[in-house]
From TrEMBL:
<feature type="transmembrane region" description="Helical">
    <location>
        <begin position="369"/>
        <end position="387"/>
    </location>
</feature>
<dbReference type="InterPro" id="IPR002293">
    <property type="entry name" value="AA/rel_permease1"/>
</dbReference>
<keyword id="KW-1003">Cell membrane</keyword>
<dbReference type="InterPro" id="IPR050367">
    <property type="entry name" value="APC_superfamily"/>
</dbReference>
<feature type="transmembrane region" description="Helical">
    <location>
        <begin position="87"/>
        <end position="111"/>
    </location>
</feature>
<dbReference type="Pfam" id="PF13520">
    <property type="entry name" value="AA_permease_2"/>
</dbReference>
<feature type="transmembrane region" description="Helical">
    <location>
        <begin position="393"/>
        <end position="410"/>
    </location>
</feature>
<feature type="transmembrane region" description="Helical">
    <location>
        <begin position="150"/>
        <end position="171"/>
    </location>
</feature>
<feature type="transmembrane region" description="Helical">
    <location>
        <begin position="183"/>
        <end position="208"/>
    </location>
</feature>
<feature type="transmembrane region" description="Helical">
    <location>
        <begin position="44"/>
        <end position="66"/>
    </location>
</feature>
<keyword id="KW-0472">Membrane</keyword>
<feature type="transmembrane region" description="Helical">
    <location>
        <begin position="342"/>
        <end position="362"/>
    </location>
</feature>
<feature type="transmembrane region" description="Helical">
    <location>
        <begin position="317"/>
        <end position="336"/>
    </location>
</feature>
<feature type="transmembrane region" description="Helical">
    <location>
        <begin position="12"/>
        <end position="32"/>
    </location>
</feature>
<protein>
    <submittedName>
        <fullName>L-methionine/branched-chain amino acid transporter</fullName>
    </submittedName>
</protein>
<feature type="transmembrane region" description="Helical">
    <location>
        <begin position="265"/>
        <end position="285"/>
    </location>
</feature>
<keyword id="KW-1133">Transmembrane helix</keyword>
Amino acid sequence: MEQLKKELNFVQGVGLLTTSLLGTGIFAIPAITAEIAGNNGLWAWPLLLIMIFPIGLIFAELGKYYPSAGGVAYFVNRAFNPTLGRVSGWFFLTVIPFNLPAALYIASGFWVSLFNIPPFVELLIQLMTLFFIWLIGLFGAGASGWIQTLIAMLIIGLVMTIGFSSSPSVLTIEWPNLWQIDAVSLMNALGVMFWCFVGIEAFVHLTTEFKRPEKDFPRALIVGLVLAGFIYWACTAAVLSLSTGSIVVTTALPNIIEQLFGQQALWIFCAIGYAACFATINIYYQSYARLIWDQTKQDFPSIWLAKLSKRSTPVNSLSFVILLSGIFLILIHFFTISLTSLLIYANGVFVFIYLLAMLSAVRLLKGKLRIIAAICTMICVGLLWVIGYKSLYAIGIFIFLWLVAKCLTLKKYH
């Protein structure tokens, strides 16, 4: 049986998760947090980490005891039944047409802001980005791990430079007293900040490619989670410390860069910003490829998507995802389709995926871990409630896929 190559270590794992969590968020969410919550945002990041940490812990334990390229779909399969697991796998892929093209638009936006390039050139940059992701995929998860570890170091270096080049440094910023915190603004900020930690579910798909998944995967997940949280906090502190006047989300960090280092440093900021976006997009494409390979291997083992390359990487399924994204990019370009509302619905998909993982953990894990998984389940339900009616998109898609799977199963046995 064909198996994915085991080549990831602890350091590469930390680099992969950290960059997937930072991604596009590091250049927007700290400014949004500062705009919504002011200095209360300093408390928001530790609070969010307290909320996310148990979810990360459960993902780490699931990845430790049930390593699989199928990720959440595999957990659901083991906890419930193959049909529900299959539905969960295909359900995860419903975000591809709009989530990934949106991320590519954010990535190319750095070059648009710097060089004021026309839309057609921006489309070419996006397509070239897809090509580079495909090239990296030819060499397996090890190549992605080292590249994204380097990008993680660049992001950390940039944030630390911003934070500690200022006088005084971000570590001296004054925290508001707990009894002075505006709970409403804090909760509003948390609603936005949660999306900084969407990416854990994609990281789980790489568990089978760790040399020591039972040891290195949980450690990499927890360390990457805490590291990303600290970087977000430091960046928020920098925005609060160095911004003059009202905070404009799109220009907050570029203005700080220009203030500290001059206009000539903006191109470095744009290059690192693009690299951060590239890192997030890359891990999602590599994860989607592995999920498609795992799903087709089970459901349609004879087709080309179920085959691995000579390097034991799912190049065929990666090529399929790249091609699909390219088609949607071109459609979005020519029909000027707005992605804002679609992204909101995509968030509902991600929360629903987290909910499925936590429900699976309640069935699969034991003792204290089962109790933590139950608490995490309630957190996910609460998040779906916060999203409101827009979460009906995710619920409706899941029910539709489940009905299709049930019909196919019945047809198979009759």
